[in-house]
Amino acid sequence: MNRTTQSLIAVVVALGAVTGFAAFGGSDATDDAGAKAAARLPVERTSLLCPVPSSSDLAETSYTAFTPKGDGAEAKGKAELLPVSKALTDAAKEKDKKAKPFLTQKAPGEPVAGEESGAESPALIGTADGALAPGWTVQQTTTYAAGSGRGMHGTNCTAPDTDFWFPGASTAKDRSDYIHLTNPDDSAAVVDVELFGPDGEITSAVGDSIQVQPHSSVPVLLSTLADKKATNVTMHVTARSGRVAAAVQSSDEKLGGDWLPASADPADSLVLPGIPKDATSVRLVAYTPGADDADLKVQLASPTGTITPAGHESLQVKSGMTAAVDLGDVTKGEAGSLVLSPTDRSVPVVAALRVTRGKGGKQETAFIPATPAVGARSTVADNRAKGSTLSLVAPEKSATVKVTASAGTGGGSPATKTYTVKGGTTLEIADPPKPAGLKGAYALTVEPVSGGPVYGSRMLSVPEEGLPMFTVQPLPDDRGTVEVPKAERDLAVLQK
């Protein structure tokens, strides 16, 4: 394939990401016309950004990268992680021989891992092309032996974008929440950060026009962007020029901490999957960006069916104000997922859960944001021989899913198992498939086979000295394919 064709396809893929070619829904007539005019093809290039993991000398961080095997992609490809400051233009790379990859993956289906320790770990940019681009995922996992935020902090490295919502953040004095803004491009990005508390906006002037220089990462303490302290805050991050990856790291003096992933886009119905069965405290935080108040029905999809938590049947979210409610040990010893839906008219909202495990001085915290459906396929890396729990919920009707365990980073043979998730329930898979002869970490790939939409998350739990260290990662669609209009496909063929 020549350079012109590659450029064309890159433009088409970018256009699909911006205009929503891969969006679901629409009328039958539109779907029929779309089927004739477009086809789903594997993406040929993807980028992911990993935030600076820690400023502590006591931290240890691991990275695991993986691409599922797929059909239709080119046979060859490359995927690598570099410090974001070394992600130079192609011309500059030829002159800078120090830009050696931190981690390189050579083939789909073969996960790779790397480790860092101490406070010198940089933000990383990952790029994958060819056969390694569709569904490429990178997990960053950090453990802190002591100090504020001690415990396990895990996050999926994310693609750069221009708009993010983070319900569940905080500017309270016992919390240290940082927004990490990482710019992968050759020109500066300008970012606005807005904070909304229980009584409305609390953003100071410092939140406007934050400059993020090319190939750099900027951590900003949220409390410095607020006019007042608030325990429960919703943050809106918008890039007015350029694009960034945004991630929030939360540390609590008593409750540990974790990365807070961005919520799914505002919608009238939301699913927050994978509350651990031993959760001792669950807090729901929600916000509506529109002009109308939202009145939400709160339901728990348990292993046996959908129930309404006693005393928490609904939640009113006033426009422009963050609403929060403590649900206590809402799961009552059984795994579950929260399902939010409008009681009357539809109003878009964003939401997240703060989940605590343990008691007394042995408590640890993680976050579960509202999550898009798995879609065609989703993958989560850095699963261990022990401690990985997969949660799948089918809020509407029953669904059948295929779960595949990859080979390990040090060896092993893939394994696959099929599960049925009954409508209105959460299926907790405490012992997901593992590779035969596992060595190292491995990836889990979830693919719906039939039935209704499925939502999911993975909890990684590594207890240490009585502290229930854990982290939760959502399982959205991996966006491994994009719809390419027929005209662009025909033009690509002519350019060969």
TrEMBL record:
Domain of life: Bacteria
Keywords: Signal
Signal sequence coordinates: 1-22
Residue ranges of the region described as Disordered: 93-118
Entry protein name: Secreted protein
